[in-house]
Write a structure and sequence with these properties.
By secondary structure, the protein is α/β, with parallel strands linked by helices. It has ten helices and eight strands. The chain has a single domain, classed as 3-Layer(aba) Sandwich (Rossmann fold), CATH 3.40.50.1820. The longest helix has 19 residues.
């Protein structure tokens, strides 16, 4: 049984929490994401930030700051589950790499639990396109103008967030955009506003973000005269998510290595 200290706090609970935070700081990202306790410990380090959008709404995100500033920024867009501890933990890892990282919240604080696909689908469909654009544009501007930033900005997202990573780059001056198996069915006229290159990670067994869609995207990017790099993995949709049943350790590791190298090249 826990003994209560004079100030009313369980000392052994505090020590466990401190231990988990310390452990989260010293293990590989994939291991942190796969362990709910480690992911929570990493997520707890982030600061909640709220800003106003051009359409008058208030939106929130989780901010991770690097040790040294000024720093380039990375804007993260969550999967259809919402802004959970895993995405916050990825932001924390970007901060360890030296970036100012902001994991935005497209759902206004709502979340779907692991495996609650119907709930996740409902949350995803509830995002109005015009409001989504206003949200990502507001965060992009906030990061570009941040007093501790360099003005350089990259975006990255997974699944639902992968499509919105590209949407952000279409509607804001983004220096580097990474898409993990997200919707990229855009025409050359839409892609003409892209400022920086696009890196895409896609899976051969993905029945949703499939070969036909990616072939079309590559053709439209070529038409628009925009630089892009596509990587294919012998895997399923969501292969980079260690909490899912379709996780592929080797492909996730390789894609992450390519992502971090891409940002180092274009955000330095």
């Amino acid at each position: 049984m826990n003994k209560i200290s004079p100030n009313g706090i369980f000392p052994n609970v505090i020590s466990r929490r401190g231990m988990m935070k310390g452990l989260a700081a010293g293990v590989p990202l994939a291991a942190v994401l796969a362990d709910p306790l480690l992911a929570r410990a990493a997520a707890e380090k982030l600061e909640t930030v709220t800003i106003a959008t051009s359409d008058g709404r208030r939106v929130s995100g989780a901010l991770a700051m690097p040790e040294r500033t000024p720093a380039a920024s990375v804007l993260l867009v969550h999967e259809w589950w919402g802004l959970n501890d895993q995405i916050r933990a990825v932001a924390a890892d970007f901060a360890k790499q030296g970036y100012m990282a902001l994991a935005l919240d497209m759902y206004g604080g709502q979340l779907a639990g692991a495996g609650e696909r119907d709930a996740a689908r409902a949350l995803m469909k509830a995002v109005k396109p015009e409001e989504g654009v206003a949200t990502v544009a507001a965060w992009a501007a906030w990061l570009k103008e941040h007093v501790k930033g360099t003005g350089r900005l990259g975006t990255v997202g997974w699944c639902f967030g992968g499509g919105w990573s590209l949407n952000t780059a279409v509607h804001a001056p983004v220096d580097a955009c990474v898409v993990y198996y997200g919707r990229v069915n855009k025409k050359a006229a839409e892609l003409a506003s892209l400022k920086g290159p696009v890196l895409g990670h896609f899976a051969t067994r993905d029945q949703w973000i499939n070969q036909q869609m990616i072939d079309g995207f590559e053709a439209e990017m070529t038409k628009a005269g925009k630089p892009f790099t596509t990587h294919w993995y012998e895997a399923d949709h969501a292969f980079a998510n260690p909490t899912g049943s379709r996780y592929d350790k080797d492909d996730a590791k390789l894609s992450w290595k390519r992502t971090t190298a891409f940002f180092r090249k274009h955000l330095a």
